[in-house]
């Protein structure tokens, strides 16, 4: 009688440019939960599948992964993926045709998953806004990028068995644009432990200093935020810190702030370690998050978990938390300069007591923790590959 082969689970973590990105944080969280699940199986005496992990990125990614692996005692095969013609997008396209023989379940954690394999396939789609961007206009590069992402989405969503999205809006977008709502399960990602373990907010007289994050993605809407900030009557008294990890973007924003005569009110920060972020939030009055559309929008909940109010576009925040965070949330029409100016004035005049800050921080920390995500992931995996997930234990949680 032929012996039954060992099952194989494969996590395709995707290709990343920086270890500070939300996508990489999410990918590591999925990996950590899976490692915890496999270790739980081993501890309970069950048969443990082999775990394969593939990723694309520099040496810093390999260092983070090997450091994470050292905390667990399960069998792992690591597959660093080469870069094709020095192009990350071309490499992601090539990855969708990649095959890993013998795999029973594969989960693509970062918007892409190899789809020609016979394995059961789970795909996390953080948003579809790269393909259907709410940002108006754009040159040839933006149009071609949009076409690329639409083709990649079409190529994948029809063939996968389950789709995970991390926002209620994501399910609606997938139904509207791709008609695949029946495959979709909303699973909220957890916050990093740095936010969950930070001290709860304290009463303090914080200066009117605001925080924002900048990337080259037009939908992040940073240019329009600066135009609105320049139009404020109190701009000389208020300060704005911008976290930007792109030298090209920082140069552009410095030139823009100088032309708007607000360069003395705006400063730039680069490469803030995750463990320092709670301290950064603690130092500001509010987070300005003018994005026109998001998958999950980590900064919103990072700020709220530290008792920091947030200005954001309408509909960005997730529904189940609204009753706890509404005093801390100022929503505006971020498509228009007038809407952003009105939102800035409202959040600048916001008066919150310590109790409101603490309630919001506690609600976010309770809703966005790793144990809850582990339970929701197990439901998705059981549906996709029930024979691999018979145990009731995942990540140490029953």
From TrEMBL:
Give residue ranges for domain Glycosyltransferase subfamily 4-like N-terminal: 38-192
MF terms in GO: glycosyltransferase activity
Question: What biological-process GO terms show up in the record?
Answer: lipopolysaccharide biosynthetic process
Q: Which SUPFAM superfamilies match?
A: UDP-Glycosyltransferase/glycogen phosphorylase (SSF53756)
- Glycosyl transferase family domain residues: 205-314
Q: Which InterPro entries does this one have? A: Glyco_trans_1 (IPR001296), Glyco_trans_4-like_N (IPR028098)
Keywords, A to Z, come to: Transferase
**Is Transferase one of the keywords?**
yes
Q: What is this protein called?
A: Glycosyltransferase family 4 protein
């Amino acid at each position: 009688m032929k012996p039954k082969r060992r099952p194989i689970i494969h996590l395709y973590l995707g290709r990343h440019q920086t270890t500070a990105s939300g996508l990489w944080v999410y990918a590591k969280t999925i990996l950590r939960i899976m490692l915890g699940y496999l270790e739980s199986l081993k501890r309970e005496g069950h048969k443990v599948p082999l775990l394969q992990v593939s990723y694309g990125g520099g040496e810093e990614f390999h260092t983070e992964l090997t450091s994470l692996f050292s905390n667990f005692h399960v069998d792992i095969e690591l597959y660093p993926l080469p870069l094709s013609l020095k192009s990350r997008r071309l490499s992601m396209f090539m990855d969708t045709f990649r095959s890993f023989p013998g795999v029973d379940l594969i989960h693509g954690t970062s918007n892409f998953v190899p789809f020609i394999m016979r394995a059961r396939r789970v795909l996390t789609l953080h948003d579809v806004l790269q393909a259907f961007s709410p940002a108006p206009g754009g040159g040839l590069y933006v149009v071609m990028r949009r076409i690329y992402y639409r083709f990649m989405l079409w190529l994948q969503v029809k063939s996968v068995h389950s789709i995970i999205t991390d926002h209620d809006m994501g399910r609606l977008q997938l139904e509207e644009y791709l008609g695949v709502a029946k495959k979709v399960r909303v699973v909220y990602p957890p916050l990093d432990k740095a936010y969950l373990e930070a001290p709860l907010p304290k009463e303090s007289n914080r200066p009117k200093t605001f925080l924002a994050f900048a990337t080259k993605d037009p939908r992040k809407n940073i240019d329009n935020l600066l135009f609105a900030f320049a139009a404020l009557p109190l701009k000389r008294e208020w300060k704005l810190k911008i976290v930007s990890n792109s030298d090209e973007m920082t140069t552009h924003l410095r030139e823009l702030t100088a032309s708007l005569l607000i360069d003395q009110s705006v400063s730039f920060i680069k490469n803030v370690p995750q463990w320092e972020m709670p301290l950064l939030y603690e130092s500001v009055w509010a987070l300005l998050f003018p994005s026109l559309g998001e998958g999950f929008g980590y900064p919103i909940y990072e700020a709220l978990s530290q008792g920091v109010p947030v200005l954001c576009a309408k509909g960005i925040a997730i529904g189940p938390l609204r009753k706890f965070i509404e005093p801390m949330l100022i929503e505006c029409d971020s498509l228009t300069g007038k809407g952003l100016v009105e939102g800035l004035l409202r959040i600048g005049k916001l008066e919150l007591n310590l109790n409101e800050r603490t309630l919001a921080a506690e609600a976010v920390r309770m809703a966005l923790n790793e144990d809850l995500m582990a339970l929701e992931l197990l439901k998705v995996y059981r549906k996709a590959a029930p024979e691999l997930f018979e145990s009731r234990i995942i990540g140490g949680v029953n």
